[in-house]
Each structure stands twice: as structure tokens, then as C-alpha cells.
From TrEMBL, chain A:
This is Uncharacterized protein. Residues 118-143, 151-182 have a biased composition (Basic and acidic residues). Residues 112-203 are annotated as: Disordered. It comes from Halosaccharopolyspora lacisalsi.
UniProtKB/TrEMBL annotation, chain B:
This is NADH-quinone oxidoreductase subunit H. Keywords: Membrane, NAD, Transmembrane, Transmembrane helix. One of its GO terms (biological process) is aerobic respiration. The chain crosses the membrane at residues 6-30, 69-91, 111-137, 149-167, 173-195, 228-248, 254-271, 283-307. It is found in: Cell membrane; Membrane. Its main location: membrane. The lineage of its organism: Bacteria, Bacillati, Actinomycetota, Actinomycetes, Pseudonocardiales. It comes from the Bacteria. GO terms for cellular component: plasma membrane. It is a multi-pass membrane protein. It comes from Halosaccharopolyspora lacisalsi.
Amino acid sequence: MELTRALLRFAAGRPHVLLLEVPGGTATRLAAEVELRRRGWPAAVSPAEADMVLLAGAGGARLTPMMGLLWRQVPKPRVFAHLDDAATVPQMFDEARRRLATGGETWEVFAGEEQDGDEFREGHHGDEHGGDSDHGDGDHEDTSAGGGDHGSGHEGGGEQSGGDDHGGGHDHGGGHGHDHGGMEMPGGLSMAGRGPDRDGLQLDQLHVPLGPLLPDWPAGLVVYTTLQGDVVQQAEVDVLRAESVHEGFWDEPWRRVGSGQEVARGEGARRRVAGYLDSLAGFLRVAGWPDPAVGAARSRDELLAGARAEQVTPRLRRLVRRLRRARTLRWLTDGLGVLSSARAESAGFETVLRASRGDGDVTARWQTWLTEIERILPQVDDTTALPAENALLRGESSEDPRSLPALAVLPELLEGAELAAARLIVASLAPDVTALGGRAATEVVGD
Amino acid sequence: MTEVPLWSLAVLPAVLGAATIVAIAFDVALSARAGGRAASLTEVVVVPLREAVRLLVGQRRVTTAADRVLWRTGVVTVPVIALLAALVLPLGGVAVADLGVGVVWFNAMEILAWAAVWMAGWGPNSVLSLVGGYRFVAQGLAYELPHMFALISAATAAGTLRVGGIVEAQSGVWFVVWMPVAFVVYLLSAVAMAFRGPFDAPTGRDLAGGAVEELSGVDRLVFQGGRWLLLVVAVAMSVPLFLGGGHGPLLPPWLWTVLKTAAVLAAVLWLRRKFPTVRMDRFAEIAWVVLIPLTILQALAVGVLVLTW
């Protein structure tokens, strides 16, 4: 026992953290990223890899069962934290590590609302009955399966979720043997249905949701895909609507202007550069290039922490130059997700995307970020006041020019793309669902 | 080259394990540097051990309707083939087995990686895992032929398939000097075979880990450790094949082998950070249109040189 305790303590020194963001959780996620980098803790990419799951942002009724499913896939010892307050992140990590070192298995709400906490605990008890009853031998029978839990979106639906129909709305936590058609199927899963693929062959179709609980994926976005092999045959976009209205993190300075405060131009510029850097960092992580991704994230965090332009500029310029010279990256993203100028215009994209050469592809989009970063960077120390005409009223969000049009064009860009390309396309559009507010989301659904 | 007695079978995993820990520590140090953090030596050396302990105390998971036999077989196969391939790997003048068909043995073991990753991807009955398995098969189709032509070049020049014989043939000029293309292609394909970055699409972040997505606990340790072993072994093989093995002035042959291996491994790990993950839908074209003709020409040039000299 002594040995086990010592080993647990040793292992807890460098936990892998699965960081998941839901609408409204941007500030918390950023704080957590800073803290992870400072401690040198790795960010997990799947529940199986994680020791600690951190949900940033407010939960919601629709999220709870999904979290329950995801939680069941996390191997013990494990710790869960739901956090809606950026300031408590460092203490939370200390506390979580302490719990891991003593065996973990905590389903804890650290700074969330009480009500949510109860819901989550209930989810946990359900898990105890279902998932854990049959693991006497140390193997954790993961009953979450793909049976009917389409809401889960765990890592894009880790399980092969047969040929069932995601319209059915089975997103409850059970997942035990939905035997469609009354037949006994292995593990209670139905077999995959078939359909013609792009070459006219009859191939298995799998219905796999991507998001919303997926690292390096826009918060709150869900794409229901029909996959054949790794090719997306059909894509349908949905948005995880939060119960309360969330105010976007990236347009916060303009909202403060709206509420009558005097805000420096530099602060707005700072937020915008940081926003582009955040998109860039996420894109580079999806592209499998960790070093410049970390570089972009570092500069973003320094800017948000208030570093002066001359402290940030040299490293940022080096990063931009490095990416401009990155022929391999360009070669890998050229020709992906091409959005014709006409379509971009009809979908309502503002200048940012159309400015990138006509028929912009993924390459054009990330290069536009670089240009914008270089253009806005000199203004971050500007102390003159932000003009009031761009101000946002409280509760109102800017119609982020990227968000709505991005969601509208996503299905057509994703159809026919391979999964790798699909992830890059989504990352290059980086829709900020939070900025939509509650009302616009419905217009997008079913597009 | 001398063969050592049977007890060396026990020493081999220990030596390779130590080399792997050093390689991981080096990689951790590079990561820390990229993140703007200076990592102390003890910190980076502790990381691989901590990871191993973390996974040993972690729970193993099983997914619904998983094909456990295939899954576990695939996972265990990765470190096993790395060790089997290392049997013919000489350390100075010594190898566990200096087979007459050493190069073929080595290549045969490497190719088992195809089956291993495919089974590990197929086993858990999970979409992203399966796609990771597919990706590795596509990757194999791209790297394997150039890889074989690179191996053939070295074997042709030495006139033998025995690894010891290939080292002896380099007592004068190292093969890297007159077959640079084969050397570079060999290293590329060695990295692709161990599916490490930039050829890590089968376990990519965009697939939430792909073939390793569903692995936890000791399964993950075996698979991921095996990947590192495979990289170390494949890169280490470039030393006897192209860099003169233990040949070198002053120092004893085993030390030369260690130094050369460390240098190549460091270069490979450092260069990885210069490139994003290479997808096979793009790379396959380069492999077939550029690398295969280049390596065939290289083999041809070597063949002509051997015949005329």
C-alpha cells in the first residue's frame, strides 16, 4: 500500500490534462493554457490519455450527459474539474494534483454553480452503476459505446456508432445495447449501414459527430458527419446553445465602450491580435506543428497579460517570418477548403476572408491572419480612446464577421474532404460560436 | 563481427531501453525550450520514468465490442518487432545475432509494424482509431519501396546481406559518401516506419490520437514505448548501414557506434520540429514520383560502381 501511494504521488507530478472549452469559457481556457505551459504539463488529446478533465465555461443541460459519457472513458485515477472562473485556475490545478496523488476519482465542481454541481454528481452516480460494476479485473469496461449517444461527440465520437440515425435524440447517458431492429448485435451496437461512396462503391457509412467536447475544436460547435472510411460524405452543422447569453471574450473591450467606459484603442488592438494568434495556435496544433503553435500561444498570453509592444514584437515577427517561409505547411494546406469569392460574398464574409486571394483556401486564410497580426500589432500601445461608434451594448455581441458565414459554408466545404482536411478547414475558419449569442444560432442550424 | 552468447538477449532490451529514455528526455528538453521554459536535467530525465509509472498505475480500458485479441496483439507487437529487429544491430563489433540475411531480417521485422498498427487501430471498434490504422497502411505504401531500395543500395555496395559484412566494407569510405540519397531516404522512411513526427499522422492530434486514441494504462505504455524503441532501432541501423558502424579513429568501436547513433538521433528529433505533420494524400505522390526514381537511380549508380571498380 505504501508503494502504491508513493507511485501515485510520483505519477501525479505530471498529469495529462484534457482541456475542453464550451461557450463562455475562453478566458478560463486561456488561463489554463498558461498554467499548463508554466508547469510543463501536457495537454491530452483524448479521454483515454487524460488524468484530469477540465471543462472551461458554463455547463448546461445538453452538456451534462455528454460529459457523463466522456468521463466514463477516462481511466482511473482521474480528476474532473468544471471551472467558470479564470482566477482560480492555479489553485484548481494544485488541488487536482493533490487529489490525483491520493487516488483521484473525483467528480468535483470547483467554482461552478451549485445547481450544476448536483447535476454532475448525479451523472457520476449513474456512471458508478453502469460503467464500473463490471470491472473487477481492473479492466474498465467502457459501456458508453456508440449505441445511440450522438450527443457525446467525444473526440468526434470515439466509438464506431453503427448505422443509426442521429436525429433520434438518444443523447442520454445509458448507451447500453440499443438493439435496433430487435436483433442481438455485438455489444448491443447495430451494424453500419451502407451507401454508395464517391467512386460508386457500396461502403459502410458511420455517423460520427465532431465536437463539441473535442480539444482544438471551436467551442460549442458540433458537426454531424457521415463518414465512409475517413471521407466526410455529409456534414450538418449545429451549435451548442448555452442557457445563459454569453458575452464573447474577443470583443469585450468594445462592450466596455458600450457601457460608457473609456477604453484605449491599444486594448482593442491587443485583443484582436491575441484573437488571431489564438486561432493560429489552434490551427497549428491541428496541423501537427507543436513548436510554432506554442510560440503563438505564448505571444497571445503575453499580449493579454499586458506586455508592451516592444517586448512581444521581436518574437512575433520571427514567428510570422517563419510561417511565411514554411513551404511544407503551405504545400500541405494548399487547395483545401476552397471558398470561391462569389460564395464568400453571398455567405456574407467581410473583408478579412475575401481579401485573401480570390478563391481562398486554407493557406490563404492562415496567411491572412499573419497579415492582420502584422498590421494591427503596432497599435497595441495606442492610448487614445476607442471611438464610440464601434461600441457594443451590454448583452449584445458583435456579429463576428467570421462566425455566421463560416457556419453557413462549413457543410459544403467539409463534404468530400478527408478527416484531416476537414479538421484543417474548421480550424482555418475558426468560427467563434460565442459571438453569435443565443439568437442567431437557430438560423444556422439545418443549413 | 562476433556474436555474443545467449545471455545478451537480456542485455539488449536494457541497453535499448536506456537509449530510448535518453531520446525521450532530449525530446522533452526540446519541447520545454519551445515553450520558453528552461528544463533542468533531472526534470527531463524524470519525465520518461514518471510517464511510465503514470501509465502503470493507470486503469486499462476496454471499449464496447472491441476485438480484444487483435487489439492487444497489435499493441504488443510494436515493441516486440523493435527488439527482434535490434537482434542484428551491431554495437561496435558485437551483435546478438549476425545473421547471413541480416538486412532482410531487419526489413521483415519492420514491415510487421504495418500489421501491428492496423490491428491496434482496428481492435477498439472506434472510428478515429480505425482511421489511424488506415493512415498507417497508406503511409507504408508511400515509404516502403524507397526504403527497400535504400537498403538494397547498401547491401549491393558491400556484396552481402550480413550487417557485419556491410560494416566491414566501410573500413575505408563510409557509404553515406557515395550514396547520400539512400542515406537521406533511409532516415525519412525510418521515421515514417516508427510513425513519429513529421510522419505521425496515424496518431495525429487531429484524430484525437488516432491509433492510440483508446489506449490507456499499460497498453498505452507498451504501444508508445514500442514506438520510441522502433524509432531508436531504425535510426541506429543507419549507423552500420551508411555511417561506417564502429569505424573511427582513437575511440573504441562501441563508443563510435554510440556517438554516431546519438548524433543521428538528435538530428532526427531536432529536424522533426521544423515540419508540420505530413499527410499521405500529399506525400504519397512525392514518394512515388520523386523518391522511388531517385533511389532506383542511386541503386543503379552503386551497382555500376561496384561492377566497374
